[in-house]
Design goal:
The protein is mainly alpha-helical. It has a domain of about 45 residues. It is about 45% helix and about 5% strand. Strands 1-2 form a two-stranded antiparallel sheet. β1 and β2 form a beta hairpin. The longest helix is centred in the first third of the chain and has 20 residues. The radius of gyration is 37 Å and the shape is flat.
């Protein structure tokens, strides 16, 4: 209401540089919360002593160490996994790991997290103890086309646009021709 009166009066608007912004509930509540917070700080501040942390440490920091321990552990793990046991004396000096061959899993091998492997092992042991044959996970089937019976992949001439599926064998048309006819 006040805003409308001020904005409607050219004399007031010309004589002042006041900016009257739109106010909504969010703006008012933010202003009110900030005002209350400032008032509480003014009331509580005299009772609280300011904390000042020293900018310099009282004791000197320990000297910088190279990550030799992690390099030793990595080298030890790599040697243990690939070769016969190595005497501890030969591992005591850092072994350069740069350029060392990294073991790569064969393409046929499927990597499984340790927890998953452990869980599967426990399940198979429990099934063997009961005399049951543990079930292996079935490989998911591909979706087959109801028109031609082939898998619904681009290799077999299938495609999809939104909820419309296209089978090149069954329709006898190209993909473009079919979608032009559908979306005319």
């Amino acid at each position: 209401m006040i805003r409308d009166i001020v904005l409607g009066s050219p004399g007031i608007m010309g004589g002042t540089k006041l900016k009257l912004f739109e106010l909504n509930q969010l703006t008012i509540s933010q202003w009110h919360n900030a005002r209350i917070k400032r008032q509480e700080e003014v009331v509580l501040q005299p009772d609280i002593e300011p904390f000042t942390a020293p900018l310099v440490a009282l004791e000197q920091l320990p000297p910088h160490r190279v990550l030799e321990a992690s390099l030793l552990q990595r080298a030890r793990r790599q040697q243990l996994s690939t070769a016969a046991p190595v005497p501890f004396a030969s591992i005591a000096t850092p072994i350069p790991v740069v350029g060392a061959p990294v073991p790569v899993a064969a393409p046929d091998e499927k990597r499984v997290p340790r927890t998953t492997a452990w869980r599967r092992k426990k399940l198979s042991e429990a099934a063997a103890a009961q005399g049951l044959n543990p079930k292996k996970r079935q490989i998911p089937r591909q979706f087959l086309c109801q028109k031609c019976g082939q898998p619904k992949t681009t290799d077999f001439g299938h495609s999809q646009f939104r909820d419309v599926y296209f089978c090149a064998k069954a329709s006898g048309k190209t993909r473009g021709e079919t979608f032009v006819c559908i979306y005319k």
